[in-house]
Amino acid sequence: MSLxxxxxxxxxxxxxxxxxxxxxVRSSIQLxxxxxxxxxxxxxxxxxxxxxxxxxxxxLGTTLAAMSIILLAIKMAADYQEKRFLWSELAASFxxxxxxxxx
Length: 103
Hints:
Blueprint: H1 14-46, H2 52-81, H3 87-102
């Protein structure tokens, strides 16, 4: 009686298995190096001072800063009309932006 071929164990060739393993490791190293190079290129494009993305981020930061100052001015004008305006609060509201701008 013969057993089906699925149940029969065939001895493997250790040399070919190790060659496949070494080839797989080399391919993995090459893929890792290519991934690192790609990410370096992407980050180089992102933080390039003459790039469009960098300019867009700077414009966004400037716009947000201007909108924050306008909002602060509107709030202080409303407080001034309601006689709740305090110079100490004005000074306190400028401390954190000045610290951030200087450092």
